[in-house]
Predict the structure.
Amino acid sequence: MSTVARSPATPLTETLSRVAADYQTADVIPHCPSCSRPCCKLDALVLELEWKQVKPLWQIEASRKDFDRQLAAGKGPVEIRAANGLYYIHSKPCPAYDETAGNCRVYGQDIKPPGCSDFPVYEDEGDLIVDLRCEAVDLDALIARLKPALGSAYRLTEHADRDFPFLVTLSVKKASPVRPSPGKPVQRKKQRR
Ligand code: SF4
Ligand code: SF4
C-alpha cells in the first residue's frame, strides 16, 4: 500500500489520480480474472465510445456514415446505440473482452477507451469518484489509503449520488485550523514591568 504523503507542491488532482491508479493496480485489477460480475460484459454498465474506438473494436469496414445508417435502420449491432455523436454499448460483452481469461485483449493499448481505465475509481475535478458496482472496491480500504496520501491538512467527506447511489464521491477539503475552545480564554503572558 502506498502511503507517501503529498508534497505541498503536488496538485491535489495529481495526488487523487495517483491514489486511484495505485488502488486499481493493487486491489482491483488482481481481482478481475475471478470477478463474478465482470464489468466488460456490459450487462450492468454502459460503455461510452467515440467512433475511433468503435471502428477498430468491432472491426467495421464501412464508413461512419454508412455505419450510422445501418444502426438507424435497426440492422445492428444491437448492443450499440448512437446519440450526440457518441456510441453507447450495453447488453452484450465488449468484443475486446476475453471471457475465458477474464481480461481485456487491448489492455495497455491505445485502442483501450480511457473510460475503461477509470472504472471503478477515478479523479474528477478535484474529487475521487468511486463506483461500487465493482465488487473489488472496498470503500473503507480506499479511504484508509487516501488519508495518509493527503496528509493531515485535508479532510474527506463522502456522499452517494441521489439517483445512482452506487456512485460515491469522496470530496477533499482543507481542514480548518484548530481554534481554542470558546469556553477557555487564551492565557496571555504577563508583561514584565
Ligand atoms: S467489476 Fe471490477 S473486479 Fe470485476 S472485472 Fe470489472 S473492474 Fe474487475
Ligand atoms: S475495452 Fe477492454 S476494459 Fe474496456 S470494456 Fe472492452 S474488454 Fe473491458
Q: What stands out?
A: Strands lie at 47-49, 80-83, 86-89, 97-98, 103-104, 121-124, 127-131, 154-160, 167-174. The pocket of iron/sulfur cluster (ligand 2) is lined by residues 40, 47, 94, 96-97, 104, 106, 112-113, 116 (CB under 6 Å).
